[in-house]
Protein 1
Amino acid sequence: MGLLGLGMFTSALAQKSVGLSWGTGHLQRQDLSFSSMKHSTISPLNLTGTFNYQNSFQEHLIQIGFATYSPSLVEPFTFYTEGGDSSTSYRHNFKQLNLGYTFLYTIYENGNLKVKAGLNQENRLIASEYYYAISSSFSYYFSFGVNAAVKAEYAWKEENKFTLMGRASLFAFNARSPYLGIDDHYLEDNYSHKSFNAFLNYISNARFQSLGKYQYLDILMVYDRTLNDKWSFNASYQLGLNFNQSPTHFASVLNVLYLGMNYTL
């Protein structure tokens, strides 16, 4: 009866929810493999979906996100080819797809305050197109990393909760484009002229990197307001820092403001 009662008690405290958030962000990025310039722009297309399972002792969080940014050092302009034809230049385009899983265990609880710690496994696929009028270059940066994770929650008046969560890199397997985008290995990866095969070849080039060559920090602050027993509204701010030193210096600073809804299953 004791074990059965404990199982029923834990099950009663368990909660499952799904969420969807939309945000507007500002990205600053520099990749010396393709340009010495610092590119920055604002984008209203930052989407994040979540599935969360938690009880009194632990939490499981799955996140998937997509964002696209189109920076340009100058406004699009008209240029002419040697044949006299005219065309309009394009902005650069940076797309990012994230898929992550976080496991957290409650390490401290006192009244309305709860602190959790654990690990995060984060997969980031970044595909970029650099347009230089008549020419262009493709860039990839794929990262499969393990991060330390800490989360603090403070609830008040039953329907309000503030959450602060941080994730910092421990190590990752990273694959980046070669310097200037093309080398013998890149040509070999694309020899089949099949996009999916080339994608798998890029991933196979991933190399183990720790803090000496790769640094990642993500900070998320969330205010959550319960509307009823099923729905809640949230507003959040995310700061994402991503630095890499191989094969060249890469730096990315991302700031995003989100609005979202959660639904309790």
Note: Residues 13-72+91-264 form a domain with the Lipocalin fold (CATH 2.40.128.90).
Protein 2
Amino acid sequence: MRSNSISYPMITIQSDWDQVIRRPVANVWLTSKTINENSVHQTIQFNESKASDSQDFHITCPSNYYLKLINKSTKQLYGFIAPNHVFSSIHSKAVSSIDVTTGGLGVSVGADSKLLVWSSADGSI
């Protein structure tokens, strides 16, 4: 049975993108991966914090803390918001997924397969 649902790609961006784009001229890598297809690696070029469109995305950078990508073919919107707090003691390995509630709780899972709930105010578990 064939599904009629649309499959949007998962987007991965260079982890320090928000620091890199503050340089006068910079490049940030981006990878998109759709199920059952090869990954597509692209570079976003920045000049004075203005982004040039990539092969698949229209890119705008309204501020140094927000990056907006719109897929040229699907019109799907992706937004990346830079962190304003970094809690390096929550996971000992890479973080695979994260979500933060408006109520101040964060939940994340790391490469160590540990699911943790923590305070977004101070990082306490």
Note: DSSP finds one helix and ten strands in the chain.
